[in-house]
């Protein structure tokens, strides 16, 4: 139960940060680039904090794609993986509500921001592959640095991907319920989720090969 609460709470705080900082940025500036920066830095920072604090409890997935990658590698049981994903999605939606209420908005508002097309889908595949690669690479070479590696990777991926790097099905679903700076039209969410899950599976298999221990010759 503590593991599931940690996953739900971590995803809640992550989404509240993504959505809340987006609302704040949008209210403070009309400059889109500056607003994106105001959305980027808090997201990267909160990931470092949440993974450091909650990692010892649940592994700090906060992301169904990450949980799927661990499942593919046989590092989490199927039943627990399903519970993790349910907790993450529920926590993410709750995070949108929390952010909206802080800024005196209705709890839910379906997004009208269109994010679709081959470039967006490819960007999500790249972003999610990179995230899973960073996690498994970090766990192999520098486990204590994983919070910083993930936070810095997402900070960078906000800017080098066309989609601003959702890389997380729970976050994508939650952002469908906010018609603010960080929103995504609900119609566009399913394809984002598909690309994220495909990327997670590819990355998990690739990392299994790349980081395998060398066999003696």
From TrEMBL:
Write down the PANTHER family for this protein, in alphabetical order: AQUAPORIN NIP1-1-RELATED (PTHR45724:SF13), AQUAPORIN NIP2-1 (PTHR45724)
Q: Where are the transmembrane segments?
A: 44-72, 84-109, 121-139, 146-171, 191-211
This protein's species is: Rubricella aquisinus
**Where is the protein localized?**
Membrane
Name of the protein this chain belongs to: Glycerol uptake facilitator-like aquaporin
Q: Which domain of life is it from?
A: Bacteria
Any idea which GO molecular function terms this record carries? channel activity
User: Pfam families annotated for this entry?
Assistant: MIP (PF00230)
Checking InterPro entries in the record gives: Aquaporin-like (IPR023271), Aquaporin_transptr (IPR034294), MIP (IPR000425), MIP_CS (IPR022357)
An example GO CC term for this entry is: membrane
Q: Which family does it belong to?
A: Belongs to the MIP/aquaporin (TC 1.A.8) family.
Membrane topology term reads: Multi-pass membrane protein
Keywords on this record? Membrane, Transmembrane, Transmembrane helix, Transport
Q: What is its main location?
A: membrane
